[in-house]
What does this fold into?
Amino acid sequence: MIVGLGNPGAEYAHTRHNVGFRVSDLLAQRLGVKIDRLKFQALTRPCAYHGQQILLVQPQTYMNLSGAAVGALASYYKIPPEKILVIFDDISLPVGRIRLRQEGSAGGHNGVKSIIRSLGSEQFPRIKVGVGEKPHPDYDLADWVLSKFSAQEEKALAPAVEHAVDAALLFLDEGYQKAASAYNGK
It folds into this structure.
């Protein structure tokens, strides 16, 4: 299962918090499918990739409740946490950088916290896409992650979205270590 995190609705489409949706949309495009089947509070699309069955997922629960959709789908399809790749925004990384992790805490990300609670595990791989840190410490975090990228940031973000898709495909083909070696820090 490959899960792109974001918020549903056109008003959130180009916000920092919706980078996971952007990556999963590009991944679906590369695989020649659309993530458009509503199941367990998520848009989904099963498809094949190099002989593997994969499920592309975009929770429609809003970010903070992403775990409800991910947990229900994982249970229904009997997918263990280590086979669930989650792609999401990270404010601790500069815009245009990605980082892969095999497991770990939520790092303050409410969507990831919800998934950890729902799965009862931190043992799932993830691709973090940098969206930049708040412009100053007093800036409201919710306002920041729901803000749109500047034109300059969009230029820096575009290759990161491509790298995240490439990393996800390499993860499917050759596993976490190869994907992390090739794409961490790109």
About this structure: Residues 2-183 form a domain with the Rossmann fold fold (CATH 3.40.50.1470). The first strand starts at residue 2 and ends at 4. The radius of gyration is 15 Å. The first helix runs from residue 19 to 31.
